Amino acid sequence: MNPNTALTLAKTLPLGWIGRHIRGTAHRGWSTVRWPFRHLILTLTIVTVAVLVTVADGPLLLAAAVAPVALGVVWHRLHPRSFAPIRSRLLGSIRGPLLYRWRWRRLCQACGLTKKPNPKGDEEAPILVRVRAVPAGDQLHVRLRAGQIPDDFTRRAEDLAHALSAREVRVTSPKPGWVRLLVSRRDVLADGLTLTTVAPSLDLTRVPFAVGEDGMWRHRSYANVSGEVGGGLPGSGKTAGETSLVAGLMQNPAVQFVVIDGKGGQDWAWIAPRASIYIADDEDFTVVRDALATVVRVAQHRVRTQRERRGNSNYWNLPIVPEHPWLVVIVDEVQTWTEARAITDKAQRELANEITALMGRLVKKYRSAGVVTRLLTQKPTGDTLPTHIRDNTSIRTAWRVKSRAAAVSILGDDALDGTTITPTGISELTPGVAVVADDKGNLERVRFPYVPEDLAERIATDTAHHRRDLRTLLPLVTPSLTPADSDDQDDDSDVAA
């Protein structure tokens, strides 16, 4: 029967199952017949390969079939992280047709996610462009139809999860007109992640720091970042998460560290061989004040001389080399100094105010000087993380906290509006899980890996030769630390593209 005749006959039948079935069968059959002629080059390629396979010798054919598989297995074993994107595409190309494409239109209709281009037209589903396999399940990249918005999918996420027999479906919008659906079939964040080796973080614009809910590594850029705040209850994995991040950065010779531990314990003792300055004394406020003042002098010297000496006023527009290292200042348990009202001694309180002012100055003024100040606390409040400092930080991480107020003090006043993702919902059984903002400003849950202290200490010892005394970054005659902000160059110039 001619396909057109079948289509005509089907249209005359009652609009029931039989009519739709005949119409669909006729359409698919005719599309199958036309496919080789519409894809002539691909058809000829397939025919050529088939002929070669037919006449090829048996061992040669076996080697050609086995070699790609063997290469993939070896690559995956030796370097799974670099093989992951290829694995994602290969499995996605298989799982896409098998699990999603054949029922995509019907699925969207059932969940109310179709649109009519015109009143007389048929309902059209958003376009499923590609499928990628990820450790947590599958990632669907969907182009929206006119009149659709990402919130349409967010409202139907639970319906989609039930229809796809998934644990949950998470919706994000990577760019206007698109949504990305994470069809999660297992909670990868529930599993602990312990690293036995740590790769060097040599590219400061792409530093791996945690694993996302899809099971893929998250990266962040530290270019033009002057401040970071983080907080979480004791045992939430805060210090362990920082350890994994620093372990990679220690292997970069163009990075120097100033570590101040306000707990007065040994949590950071492993970094002592590598740190330019390491302070674990929570009672000697003068030493802390002097250390931060040294960092401010280095930053002040850079913003005054970079253009003349190196050709640009912004550190991030220049080569990042050991001679001009990136400075990472880590202040753990920052409430030791910022919560001044808890300090009874007058002299200590004055020093605490100086320390807080120096930290605020580093965060607010020295983005273009190649200095990042990271403030961490187990007691996040508006006092321990002053809002005038927090609001000038571009990276914020909230580990497990008990109250919304604590979460807001870390993430910002409006960060939790319109989202169900919150650090108050993190289980105490999952240390290392935290809430961070992605590069689009959306909150997401991640899990920081655990690096054993003996491994971190071994890395610090092996890279101790990269350590530099910060005083060598200053001229022989160091100008006094001026309190006036007007003395420093405006920090909003020459932002790296």
TrEMBL record:
The lineage of its organism: Bacteria, Bacillati, Actinomycetota, Actinomycetes, Jiangellales. InterPro entries: FtsK/SpoIIIE/SftA, P-loop_NTPase. It comes from Jiangella alba. This is DNA segregation ATPase FtsK/SpoIIIE, S-DNA-T family. The keyword Transmembrane helix applies. Residues 485-497 have a biased composition (Acidic residues). It comes from the Bacteria. Keywords: Membrane, Transmembrane, Transmembrane helix. Residues 478-497 are annotated as: Disordered.
